Amino acid sequence: MSDWIKVARASDIPDPGKETLEVADTMVVLVHAGGAFHCIDDVCTHDGGPLGDGPLDGCQIICPRHGARFDVRTGKALTMPATVNVQAHEVKVEGDDVFVRLNENGG
Ligand code: FES
Question: Is 107 part of any domain?
Fold first, then answer.
């Protein structure tokens, strides 16, 4: 189990908003949406598109490359052409500090 890593200040990321970050050598997208923070891998499971560059639609992020949608809360692949979920990571907020704990690949 990896450690909690402080990655951002909550007040720096509006709702809705997002930021692409490198956390322990993993590129992730930290998303602020629907009053909560979520974190998923930055890499689209379809063909490696940079999810952090895609637009948000509520709690969904849209891959800028071919338009697949993922639920940022769970990483679930919602629409074609993606069929494999993207890895989601744990997030907690303490005061103004946002922490991420990376999950292993496979979820
Ligand atoms: S790379 Fe993301 S939908 Fe194709």
Answer: no
Q: Distances from the Cα of 92 to the Cαs of 6, 30, 38, 74, 101, in angstroms?
A: 9, 11, 9, 15, 9
- Ligand 1 center–CA 43 separation, angstroms: 9
Mean pLDDT in each 10-residue stretch from start to end of the chain (107 residues)?
A: 92 98 96 97 98 98 98 98 98 98 74
Ligand 1 mean position to 48 CA, how many Å? Answer: 6
Check pocket membership of 63 for ligand 1, CB cut-off 6 A: yes
| Domain range enclosing 67 | 5-101
Q: Does the beta carbon of 66 sit less than 6 angstroms from any atom of ligand 1?
A: yes
> Is residue 38 in some structural domain?
yes
Indicate if ligand 1 lies below 6 Å from the C-beta of 49.
yes
User: Could you tell me the CA-to-CA distances from 4 to 34, 43, 72, 107 in Å, in that order?
Assistant: 23, 21, 19, 19
Query: For the whole prediction, is pTM greater than 0.90?
Result: yes
